[in-house]
Specification:
This protein is α/β, with parallel strands linked by helices and 475 residues long. The chain has two domains: 3-178, P-loop containing nucleotide triphosphate hydrolases (Rossmann fold), CATH 3.40.50; 186-257 and 325-473, no CATH class. It contains 21 helices and 15 strands. The protein has helices at residues 3-24, 35-48, 67-78, 92-97, 102-113, 137-147, 160-164, 167-172, 183-191, 199-208, 213-231, 238-246, 259-279, 283-298, 305-312, 316-328, 341-346, 356-363, 371-393, 433-441, 469-473, and strands at residues 25-26, 29-30, 56-60, 87-91, 124-129, 151-157, 174-175, 332-337, 350-353, 398-402, 411-415, 420-425, 446-451, 457-459, 464-468. It has an eight-stranded mixed sheet, with helices on both faces. It has a five-stranded parallel sheet with strand order 4-5-6-3-7, with helices on both faces. The protein has a two-stranded antiparallel ribbon with strand order 1-2. Strand 12, helix 20 and strand 13 (446-451) form a beta-alpha-beta unit. Helix 1 crosses helix 3, helix 14 crosses helix 18 and helix 18 runs antiparallel to helix 19. The longest helix is centred in the C-terminal third of the chain and has 23 residues, at 371-393. It starts with a helix and ends with a helix. The mean pLDDT is 91.
């Protein structure tokens, strides 16, 4: 028995409450809970009632999206609902730093409990943070799952691919992905202002499940009173705060001057831990990744692999591998050019950031006061890319591309039922031109222009509807 592991477990049992308190409240104010929290509570409650076989939930998500906060909220929810010491929070980052591993810790926890997990008559809840830091995590937790039916595990990890591609995990675990904040979640956490129940789904259905722009317009008109009522609770100025830093929850309580520094440290950890684990890159390649991200933050719609590779001193194969790793780690979102396979190969992909806060942090290095105003449209495109990725791409419900021709639409959303929608999004009162250009070449069911216009405008002859950004942000 490893005495250091025993000491760690005993220390955690004593320290867990104090350690996790800052993640669930600010002074006397408890942070609101996101939707994922309630989904996981349902799994755990059913387990405690003996009504389900689900005993393992995995939460993938990039660093900074609030995974530890979710674990902390769950920890305090069940602290008094299970037997003493039958609940524990474990940070795998900490145990690896201490020279221990997950197997040592779980064995030590059994020792402290006085019985093996499979012999426990009462339920045990394990909350394990950044599990991918132990390379053997999957086999360790698979073994625990197979032998101990009275243990429920919730674990988080910063690499969705590493967590989801292990066949043993995929067959046993339930995946609940955690993304950067939507605008409604941002308002909930920042101002304790909650979204209208069901409104998001109704707006989403109107935008993407209609048969024409005219139908989109009519359905949104019916929802307009609810939309305006919801926005009466928000401040218009919050949109800029959301675009610049608000998609990452930890920034809501951070000092304004230190936010970009903290995001910069987050990026360094993503590169040196998450990307390194995915690609096993050498030191020279790792040192060039942050420069690559800076170029990507400042580039237009298409990223030329050949030109960027020559700038940062990275050959084409290595650069392609790095981009693939960044995409797998869900730091960036790749949007391919629309067209046939041969044309897709010839034309550059567009890369968006999973969180616009990452783009702003990288651009803040220039120190230019006008950076936010100049890049506001690109930050909004990141938000749109995240929305399409979360709602369609990651769930297999659709795919997204862009029109690489000059004056083409920002996105072409293809939904699994073969529906295609041309979408332009931006700051200012945009016209229909770019969506119309795309729709002349690409067969689409209708077009959407999302911008900062005050009201909706329908062009029946073009089959395009202009929608205020405020409507889109409620999804």
């Amino acid at each position: 028995m490893n005495p250091e592991a025993i000491n760690y477990i005993k220390s955690q049992i004593i320290r867990d409450k104090d350690r996790l308190h800052p993640y669930v409240r600010n002074g006397k104010w408890f942070f609101p809970k996101r939707h994922i929290y309630y989904r996981i509570v349902k799994y755990i409650d059913d387990f405690l009632l003996g009504q389900t076989e689900t005993r393992w939930v995995i939460i993938p998500g990039i660093r900074g999206v609030g995974k530890t906060t979710i674990l902390a909220q769950l920890f305090f929810t069940y602290l008094k609902k299970v037997k003493n010491f039958h609940i524990i929070y474990i940070s795998v980052d900490d145990i690896i730093t201490a020279g221990l591993n997950l197997s040592d810790i779980l064995t030590a926890y059994e020792n402290v409990l006085g019985k093996t997990f499979e012999s426990q008559p009462d339920p045990v809840l394990l909350f394990i943070d950044e599990v991918q830091q132990d390379s053997q995590w999957a086999s360790i937790l698979k073994s625990l799952y197979d032998r101990a039916r009275n243990v429920f595990v919730v674990c988080t990890g910063s690499s969705a691919v590493q967590l989801q591609t292990n066949p043993d995990v995929a067959r046993r675990g339930i995946f609940e992905k955690l993304y950067p904040l939507s605008f409604s979640e941002y308002e909930m956490l920042k101002n304790n202002t909650f979204p209208t129940k069901g409104l998001k789904q109704e707006i989403k259905s109107a935008l993407y499940e209609s048969n024409s722009a005219d139908e989109v317009y009519k359905r949104l008109k019916l929802l307009e009173p609810q939309i305006l009522t919801q926005w009466s609770k928000f401040k218009d100025s919050d949109i800029d705060g959301f675009l610049s830093t608000g998609t990452l929850p930890f920034t809501l309580l951070a000092e304004q001057m230190s936010i970009y520094d903290r995001i910069g440290l987050l990026i360094d950890r993503m590169i040196n831990k998450d990307i390194q684990e995915l690609g096993k890159f050498d030191i020279q390649t790792l040192s060039g990744i942050k420069r690559l991200l800076f170029i990507m933050a400042d580039v237009g719609d298409g990223l030329s692999i050949n030109s960027v590779g020559s700038i940062i001193g990275m050959d084409r194969n290595t650069l392609s591998a790095v981009l693939e790793a960044l995409e797998k780690a869900e730091i960036i979102i790749r949007v391919i050019p629309h067209g046939s396979n041969s044309s897709i190969v010839r034309k550059p992909s567009k890369y968006l950031f999973m969180s616009p806060a990452i783009r702003m942090s990288l651009l803040s290095i220039t120190g230019l006061d006008e950076t936010f105003l100049v890049r506001r449209g690109k930050l909004l495109e990141d938000v749109a890319g995240l929305h399409f990725y979360r709602e369609f791409v990651s769930t297999g419900a659709g795919s997204v591309a862009y029109d690489s021709a000059q004056a083409g639409a920002d996105f072409i959303l293809k939904i699994v039922n073969k529906k295609q929608i041309a979408i332009e999004i931006g700051i200012g009162d945009k016209n229909f031109a770019q969506v119309k250009n795309t729709m002349e070449k690409v067969k689409c069911n209708y077009g959407l222009v999302i911008c900062t216009s005050v009201s909706m405008i329908l062009s029946e002859k073009d089959n395009v509807v202009k929608i205020p950004l405020k409507y889109f942000l409620l999804m």
